[in-house]
């Protein structure tokens, strides 16, 4: 662990200090690299070898609790023939980490594995030619174990550390290095324990919330409780500073409508932020969560065809059975378990910002105009916070800390309160989905149509917006629209049409990607219609899917989950017509996010009297190509299944009265121990295939499986989640 | 007059005002990294400590309310466990901490301060808890990553470890 003061030293100061500190800072030795990112085609950008025969790996992906830093260390150690105890991963920092893009879309292993493997292979090749020279033997006769190189038929050995010491490679990629064949793997593909866990269970791991800067003040933002529509922002009408006169030592700081307090004592800042009397302009009304979907469905939209194949009308003409299904999906919060926190030291000509962002380089770009600095004058360092599951408030908190530091003229640590985090999140957007699909007499899918109503993501963080930056949506691109992979994409369907009906983003809540963005909604609609067609055709849902899937990977993951759950062929629901006792149901679902394949089975109980749904067991299978760390992917599947249970049963942002009302764990409940299902993760390991993301795919599958289990239990199709008792009672007694 | 509190068997003079929540004293004055802020509303359990062996939410407990009581944080849990079992030297970890590593239970790990404190409290009173007892005892502690299943397994594993230590 590097102390924060050490982290703050600019690179040139470290160079002056010489060798001892170079363990964490490889020399790149080019002036242009002072502001980073360093050249991705230089070995030194990725790896440093130390005299004690250990190595440091530099990656641009951040550890979010998903374990990918362990996975990428496995990849590097594998290529270098080092032990896991001989390699550490450096903290991510705009000044010295390679830019591998943001840590989202489950990309760390998917994009990172080939990059890290190649860099490590280049480093190994360079070390081997040094060893060949030192040992007087050709490279082909050299063998490496734990960084110690020996020549065949000779007792002499030399270590990486002895060959290179703390010196840099100073070599560009040769383009000649070859990565190891999988058949020689001893680390990659094996369940290596997570490296961050001992410090975490001992309570000595330093999350960003534990970081401190010398001479810093504690800051809190002051905002209305709960956001209004994105475009409305929050306008200050008046501030009454006499309301905090009793709190000595607090400063009120403001730029435009961005408002905060700072104090040397944290508790003082907390009290001041709550006590400061501010009159905010009344925002325009929001529809409320009960009127939300009707407003979305009726809105004037920008309609774009996302995919069109075959002839839809002709497809439906050939059909024997046609079924439709709607999905009304809620806004859901990331609700990171620790409110976001960031530290900033903004000076007139330079700034250092410590943040738990998914993208240090992206954050730096957003900070530059806000602080009136060039990107090169800003250094962003990553420190781990609690899990974020997508774009939550981390960049907002970082901007807030930076603004407060600039306004205060001192380093500031700014931590959000629970209501800031819940109330000013960039939520996973609400969705209206309408799907219509049809089968032939042989039970073959012949036509499929999906219409999705949703708004895009918010481009401007709240802090920037409050200072006066105009709110704007993201360009309408990317996977936030109807996902062709989830909306029937796993099936072999000749006639398909997918349409996005884009809503004006400024009229709705702030939005961004929430783990498996919108996929739960797509699958909720799409996988229910598949089940309904199976039912209409009198087919077992597993058999129906097998008949309609050609892709071997999808078939593999489907069969794997069916086997794990001991699926027995049958025509689904309702299991029992009797009322007044608990009904049991089982459902199957498929889903993905981007590349990998997910399948799930759900067992649920429904109490028709109370409307209460219990998810008793979930099985989730993933095919993510060649899996680097199976134990860690199992852990990821467990988390995905539990979160999906939570999102299907409980989670919903409420927005009555012009503002978001769900501001804490009581008004935004999540699944607890007593309702947690038994979960079984299943891995379909695919040697030889490229590694793809494994952080999201069983979520959409499980959403479909849970919805289908509800039908199996009750004979009723739900068109809305979360499946709250009130909604379930209403649906059953309709 | 300055307050003093006893944290992990050490008496500490503190300068905070009596109404300051214990959590801010532990994190800022005493520089402890076990208990941590999660909600400030006693809803999530990330700030939990043991006060005289009973789990309490430090975020809503005024520091003056625990003066003169024995406060144990995650950092002091192995020593507290040694005190419970009569061991002469504290182990490196409480058996539950070891069990959580063995199960590879954590993801982000932020909630685990509370999970370990509450789990240790449960095991001190109920050495061999059933699944239902674990779920009931732990129900006030939230995990956003969804790692509950492995925490339940780890508590069972810790119970076995502790039974082994007693024989």
- Strand line-up in the sheet with most strands of chain A: 9-10-7-17-14-15-16
Distance between the termini of chain B: 49 Å
Number of helices, where a helix is a run of at least 4 consecutive DSSP H or I residues of chain B: 6
Contiguous low-pLDDT stretches of chain B (5 residues minimum) are: none
Global morphology of chain B: globular
* Strand content range of chain A: 15-25%
- H/E order of the elements of chain B? EEHEEEHHHHH
Radius of gyration of chain B: 16 Å
Oligomer: heterodimer
| Main sheet specs of chain B | 5 strands, mixed
For this structure, the CATH topology of the largest domain in chain A is Aldehyde Oxidoreductase, domain 4
The second-level CATH architecture of the largest domain in chain A is: 2-Layer Sandwich
Gyration radius of chain A, in Å:
27 Å
Total separate domains of chain B = 2
CATH architecture of the largest domain in chain B: Orthogonal Bundle
| CATH class group of the largest domain in chain A | Alpha Beta
């Amino acid at each position: 662990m590097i102390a924060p003061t050490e982290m703050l030293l600019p690179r040139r100061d470290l160079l002056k200090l010489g060798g001892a500190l170079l363990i964490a800072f490889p020399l790149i030795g080019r002036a242009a690299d002072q502001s980073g990112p360093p050249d991705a085609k230089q070995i030194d950008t990725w790896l440093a070898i130390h005299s004690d025969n250990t190595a440091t790996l530099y990656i641009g992906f951040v550890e979010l609790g998903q374990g990918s830093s362990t996975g990428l260390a496995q990849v590097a150690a594998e290529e270098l023939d080092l032990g896991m105890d001989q390699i550490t991963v450096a903290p991510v920092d705009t000044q010295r980490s390679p830019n591998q893009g943001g840590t989202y879309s489950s990309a760390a292993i998917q994009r990172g594995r080939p990059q890290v493997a190649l860099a490590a292979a280049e480093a190994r090749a360079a070390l081997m030619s040094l060893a060949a020279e030192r040992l007087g033997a050709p490279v082909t006769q050299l063998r490496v174990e734990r960084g110690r190189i020996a020549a065949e038929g000779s007792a002499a050995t030399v270590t990486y550390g002895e060959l290179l010491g703390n010196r840099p490679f100073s070599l560009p990629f040769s383009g000649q290095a070859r990565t190891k064949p999988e058949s020689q793997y001893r680390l990659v593909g094996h369940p290596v324990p997570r490296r961050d866990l001992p410090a975490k269970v001992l309570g000595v791991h330093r999350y960003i919330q534990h970081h401190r800067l010398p001479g810093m003040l504690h800051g809190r933002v002051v905002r209305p409780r709960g956001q209004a529509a994105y475009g409305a922002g929050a306008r200050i009408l008046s501030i009454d500073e006499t309301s905090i006169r009793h709190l000595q030592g607090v400063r009120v700081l403001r730029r435009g409508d961005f408002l905060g307090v700072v104090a040397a004592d944290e508790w003082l800042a907390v009290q001041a932020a709550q006590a400061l009397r501010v009159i905010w302009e009344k925002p325009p009304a929001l529809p409320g969560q009960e009127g939300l979907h009707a407003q979305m469905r009726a809105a004037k939209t920008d309609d774009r065809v996302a995919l069109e194949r075959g002839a839809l009308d002709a497809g439906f003409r050939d059909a024997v059975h046609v079924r439709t299904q709607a999905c009304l999906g809620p806004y859901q919060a990331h609700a990171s378990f620790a409110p976001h926190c960031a530290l900033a030291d903004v000076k007139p000509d330079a700034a250092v910002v410590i943040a738990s962002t998914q993208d240090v380089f992206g954050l730096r770009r957003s900070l530059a105009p806000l602080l009136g600095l060039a990107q090169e004058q800003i250094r962003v360092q990553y420190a781990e916070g609690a899990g974020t599951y997508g774009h939550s408030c981390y960049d907002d908190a970082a901007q807030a800390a930076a603004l407060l530091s600039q306004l205060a003229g001192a380093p500031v640590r700014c931590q959000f309160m629970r209501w800031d985090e819940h109330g000013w999140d960039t939520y996973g957007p609400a969705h209206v989905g309408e799907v219509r699909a049809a089968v032939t007499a042989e039970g073959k899918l012949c036509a499929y149509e999906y219409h999705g109503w949703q708004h895009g993501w918010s481009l401007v963080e709240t802090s920037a917006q409050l200072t006066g930056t105009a709110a704007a949506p993201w360009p309408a691109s990317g996977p936030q629209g109807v996902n062709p992979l989830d909306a029937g994409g796993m099936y072999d369907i000749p006639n398909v049409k997918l349409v996005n009906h884009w809503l004006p983003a400024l009229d709705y809540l702030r939005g961004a990607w929430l783990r498996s963005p919108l996929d739960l909604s797509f699958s909720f609609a799409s996988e229910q219609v598949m089940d309904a067609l199976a039912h209409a055709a009198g087919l077992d849902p597993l058999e129906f899917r097998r008949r309609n899937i050609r892709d071997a990977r999808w078939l593999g993951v489907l069969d794997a989950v069916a086997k794990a759950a001991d699926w027995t062929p049958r025509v689904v629901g309702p299991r029992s017509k009797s009322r007044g006792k608990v009904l049991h149901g089982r459902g199957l679902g498929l889903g993905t996010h981007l590349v990998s394949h997910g399948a799930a089975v759900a067992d649920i109980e429904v109490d028709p009297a109370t409307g209460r749904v219990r998810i008793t067991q979930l099985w989730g299978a993933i095919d993510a190509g060649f899996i680097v760390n199976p134990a860690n992917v199992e852990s990821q599947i467990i988390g995905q299944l539990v979160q999906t249970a939570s999102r299907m049963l409980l989670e919903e942002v409420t927005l009555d009265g012009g503002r978001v009302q769900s501001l804490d764990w009581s008004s935004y409940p999540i699944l607890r121990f007593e309702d947690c299902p038994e979960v079984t993760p299943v891995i379909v390991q695919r040697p030889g295939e490229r590694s793809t993301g494994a952080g999201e795919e069983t979520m959409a599958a499980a959403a479909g499986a849970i919805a289908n289990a509800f039908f199996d239990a009750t004979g009723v199709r739900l068109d809305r989640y979360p499946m709250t008792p009130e909604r379930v009672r209403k649906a059953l007694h309709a | 007059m300055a307050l003093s509190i006893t944290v992990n068997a050490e008496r500490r003079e503190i300068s905070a005002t009596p109404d300051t929540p214990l959590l801010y004293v532990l994190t800022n004055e005493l520089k402890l990294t076990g208990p941590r802020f999660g909600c400030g509303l006693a809803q999530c359990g990330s700030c939990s400590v043991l006060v005289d062996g009973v789990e309490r939410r430090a975020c809503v407990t005024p520091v003056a309310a625990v003066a003169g009581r024995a406060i144990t944080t995650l950092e002091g849990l192995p020593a507290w466990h040694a005190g419970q079992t009569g061991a002469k030297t504290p182990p490196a970890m409480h058996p539950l901490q070891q069990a959580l590593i063995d199960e590879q239970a954590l993801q982000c790990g932020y909630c685990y301060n509370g999970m370990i404190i509450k789990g240790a409290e449960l095991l001190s009173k109920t050495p061999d808890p059933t699944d239902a007892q674990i779920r009931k005892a732990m129900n006030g502690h939230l995990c956003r990553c969804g790692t509950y299943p492995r925490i339940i397994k780890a508590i069972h594993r810790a119970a076995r470890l502790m039974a082994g230590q007693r024989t």
